[in-house]
Amino acid sequence: YTEVLVCTTDLFSFEVQDQINKENKMASEKGENLEDVFDWPPLESDPDIFTKYLYSLGMSKSWQVCEVYGLDEEMLEFVPKPTVACIAAIQRDKSRSDGRPGVESTKAQYYMKQTDDLDNACGIIACLHAVFNNPDFVGIDKDSVLDEFLVKAQGLSPLERAEMMAGFKKFQEQHKKYALKGQSNLAETQSQVQHHYVAFSINSMKQLIELDGRKPGPAVIKENVNKQDLLKAVAEEIKRRLADGHISESMSLLALSMNP
Known about the structure:
Blueprint: E1 2-3, H1 17-23, H2 34-37, E2 43-44, H3 47-57, E3 63-67, H4 73-76, E4 83-90, H5 122-132, H6 145-153, H7 158-166, H8 169-179, E5 196-202, E6 208-211, E7 219-222, H9 230-244, E8 252-258
């Protein structure tokens, strides 16, 4: 779950901090420490925070997380290329299925679950899904936190990876540091956290897949998608979910792209 900016189907708005601030009060107002509120606090949907967080973990500085300003093709052109993954912060209608349940057998180079112990770690889990599913593109510094985590994750099941992450103190310390950054306030209770992060990437079978740790497994969104068409395919899926009422317009979209 996460704190996000609000968008429309045509243009993402930057004038919504008041709305977000109503959702998310500072835990410190009650004299509580961040550690007492969440094990893994929500991250603000800010590309600069995501980029610096991933750099601190060991992602190559040849890559960045950037904002997607709209879902129409002319707006997608502003996103730096190449783009290898997208990260969406969405608010679901929990009474309805999005039609993409996900299954364990779907091909993915890396997938992990999000357990209750990883209460609001969906932002960094989405980042891991984005980075680790594109090892031929996105470099990782040797002996970094990302490198250490990935080495330990090899051969583990999606659930075992989640259990390992819950006890990975180096990761948790960095997460709490970057969860404090940004302009939006921190949520005080779980009920105030309304949004959830998911990742989209393309697997070795040229399938656009959604990687959501709360689902049974990766979900196939579209067949026969080339890397250069990822943004367009993700935008089409987001538009479909908006039109069908599966998600609200209170959402944002980020892209993992190469630095110009």
